[in-house]
Amino acid sequence: MTPLRLVFAGTPEFAVPCLQALIDAGHELAAVYTQPDRPAGRGRKLQQSPIKALALARGIPVRQPETLKRDREAQAGLRALAPDLMVVVAYGLLLPVAVLEAPRLGCVNVHASLLPRWRGAAPIQRTVLAGDRESGVCIMAMEEGLDTGPVYHRLLLELDPHETGGTLHDNLASLGARALSEALPGIADGSRIPEPQDSIHATYARKIDKGEAVIDWDQPALAIERQVRAFDPWPVAQTSLSGEVLRIWSADASDAVNEGAAPGTVVAAGRSGIAVATGAGILLITRLQPAAKRPMSATDFLNARRLDGARFG
């Protein structure tokens, strides 16, 4: 296909494969938009986004407006670039109509779900939390509504039973770059017609709150296992033991009967892990992290302390 003049908007690591794919394909990147540098780490030093780092390394102009919604000067600057298309991948800022209509071919978004399933900010974690058996990516024509635009292209991904938020993130990031590369020729020449979403089946993936990481042992073991997997690597499921916070990195659900033990009670502990009673079934913790220490196997944790009769939460 004839190379396009593009503007790319993205911020986190998830967007990197898509930007790299556009660079590798020989498209002209007029500018990259990314969120302003933010304080990060223990020192709270300003840190540039992964997308900014890649753009600077490849000599692509970078723009970092605080907002595009109310900044007329930033909107005018984008229009002046005269792009054919704007590609948006996890940018994190709302785009007003003035921006959506600026490129000749409009704006497309690479979204990490099978729309209309999981519109919103956290489709990856919500997919794992809900126990979905499949996920995927959509190349969507952007409009004013939240992820409501028609879909140009979608690729499906069957989920592994042990899928985590981290593994799904990485798999969908790569899949998104592939889907974008496959969709662009048809978007450019008009041969690929986007299909409207069926909003009746829409679900909303609200932003993850750290409070959701606290384990409620009254929940079934399967729900807690999904919580552990969904929140790996962030914000990481957690519980408490004798006032100490423990982060749970890996656990397996079992439908074994807990024989009347109160939820949160340790019913067995050994080489296979720490078996904890839940509202329904048993959760076997296999990897955890005490405060101020590195993640460790349940076996190593048990070498340092006994859990006879202990209760989490």
Taking all residues together, what is the mean pLDDT? Answer: 95
| Structural class designation | alpha/beta
- Extended strand count: 17
- Major sheet size, sense and barrel closure: 7 strands, mixed
User: What would you call the shape?
Assistant: elongated
Strand portion? 25-35%
Give the strand order, joined by hyphens, for the main sheet.
5-2-1-6-7-9-10
What is the chain-wise order of helices and strands? EHEEEHEHEHEEHEEHEHEEEEEEH
Rounded Rg: 23 Å
Show unreliable segments. Answer: none
- The percent of residues in helical segments reads 25-40%
Count of individual helical segments: 8
**First CA to last CA: what distance?**
58 Å
Task: Give structural attributes.
six-stranded antiparallel beta sheet, alpha/beta, 28% strand, 313 residues
How do the helices and strands line up, and which of them pair or pack?
Layout (H helix, E strand, L loop, with lengths): L4 E6 L5 H9 L3 E6 L4 E3 L4 E3 L2 H8 L4 E2 L8 H9 L4 E5 L7 H4 L6 E5 L7 E2 L2 H7 L4 E8 L9 E8 L6 H25 L14 E2 L15 H10 L6 E5 L2 E11 L11 E5 L2 E5 L4 E9 L5 E2 H7 L9
Helix pairs in contact: 1-6, 5-7
